[in-house]
Structure prediction request, 693 residues.
Amino acid sequence: MNKSPASSVLFLLLFLLSFTACSERVENPRWVINEVLVNNAENFVDDYGQRSGWIEIFNNTAKTQDIGGYFLTNDKSNPRKYSIPRGDVLTRIAPHQHILFWANNKPYQGTFHISFELNPDEDNYIALFDESGTKLIDEVIIPGKQLADVSWGYAMDGVKYDKAGTLQLTRLKKVTPSTNNYTLDKNEKVERFKQQDKFGASMTITSMLVVFCALLVLYIVFRFVGKSSARLNEKRRGKSTTVETTAGKPSTQDISGEVLSAIFMALHEEQNDVHDFEHTILTINKISKNYSPWSSKIYGLRELPRR
Amino acid sequence: MGNFFDFLIENLNTFISYTGFANVESGHIIMILFGILFIFLAIRYEFEPLLLVPIGFGILIGNIPFDLSANMEIGIYEEGSVLNILYQGVQKGWYPPLIFLGIGAMTDFSSLISNPKLVLVGAACQFGIFGAYIIALQLGFEPTEAASIGIIGGADGPTAIFLTSKLAPHLLGAVAISAYSYMALIPILQPPCMRLLTTKKERLIRMKSARVVSQNEKIIFPVIGLLLTAFLVPSGLPLLGMLFFGNLLKESGVTRRLAETARGPMIDIVTILLGLMVGVSTQATTFLTPASVKIFVLGALAFIIATCAGVLFVKFLNLFLKEGNKINPLIGNAGVSAVPGSARMSQVVGLEYDSTNHLLMHAMGPNVAGVIASAVAAGLMLGFLY
Prediction:
């Protein structure tokens, strides 16, 4: 009987563990080479009015990141081919936002014009390395023989691998420089609820089930903790008590809380002299004493800080 | 000389166009009257004065009419204004977790730990949230709006504000005012439901006095409570994390100063800012809409459903409990998490039928469980709809 709460807790832990995702998941990089256009015939124009291939990089985190100091390359043997300048405020990219680099081999035109071009006739290897130039952040190979104005990238921004670890690189339906590859025009979760849960029954049942489960788990755990604590107290009491409770006398557990609090209040009043009537007569006699502790420096010190 | 007078008159006209008198509309007057009513109720009848006084005065501040086109950066919705900066705490949801930190630091969970089955009563009361959610959907509200209205039934102001700021910020003023108003009106809303759903015999049930809870159990509670609830509903983390952290500060025994600050000066400062800003946000133009009236009605319904669900659930539990272990259904209402107002109601109604049957300590169990349960429910809705 006593073991039942323990076994319930064990069962519960096993039950919860069965839900945990223990398998290793392929992580998406924190910076993702999100979209690449190799052959720019009639597409996006740079700030000099020129057309060239471009590389869009996506900040795949929930924090602002600075890409300044990183390296872009199209040559595996030369990871430091183009160093993205440091100290440019424009290289600080907000969470889940993009930055676009023009692959026109004209780095003198500014931070976002890199020192190589993309070749439409052959496979293009593009990689991003961190500030050390040794750690690869992301890489991608865009297949050769590209049609004009067709971009490659990931259908969902930043999702390079799906949950099964499959590479999601694909030819995109729309060319979307510096904007999301996937356009959200409404909250899909809300739309699903609107269509499939018009009466709110599903939301109610699911949520109440989870709320009850959460608190049921709490109940089971604390029932177990309570019983263990009571057993522990019993053991301690058994060891430390020298005066046994004699038969016939009630133990403290049989006395109600109200009675106990009345007893404790009475004891408190007695021990701390907290009562209404004072019978003591206080007499102050003058004594001659030159030294008084009231002027002592040690009493002038500040109270020690409490923890 | 003529030019001077023309300039003087023009100046006076400009000044008059800036005054509240020149810009006042009927909505402002109605809202100002509401503000005065809130202050009156708080001071005269002591209805949740710590909340209604700041909210009521905030309504006055928020409804002083002025010329928006003057671009004086004084309005709450004008970016960069002082009020707008203070309002960020409501809008972005920083204030509610800070209030939960204070609540955790002042809440004694021992009544819950000593009788853990009472935690389920707190869960049952969350039917109020979802009952109101269903009705709101039928009245044509969007799921996000319905969830924000339903959470009023959780009877937890910070939770309601937190969820609404994420899901339906345009309803923030109405939801917050509704949540706090009904918390103040608990003495009016709950007793009729409690009496209606219980028999005289049930109201006289005496519950076993709670066992003494050891300090170790009190320390374990916030740690295990956080792990179990937040693992299940991570979206409730800002509220649950702060609630249990505050409680650990209180119970650890080694961080007394931090606990005192959290439950004293800090929660007071945040309550002042939260209450005032909620009041200020209720500008007539955004607040006086038919939707606000519906929200008020639904808020009351949510409270009533929650109270009834709690009382009925206790009666249901009693079917499985042995004689002597039964729970007085009058503590069922306390699962509505308004701490400690609803627990106090259990005590008051219980004493009406037996002047020696003190239910307060027993009612505190479901009461604090309600705080946890409503934070879990809010986290769930946030996860489903955000």
Remarks:
- The first strand of chain A starts at residue 31 and ends at 37.
- Residues 201-240 of chain A form the longest helix (40 residues).
- Helices of chain A lie at 4-17, 188-196, 201-240, 257-272, 297-300.
- The mean pLDDT of chain A is 82.
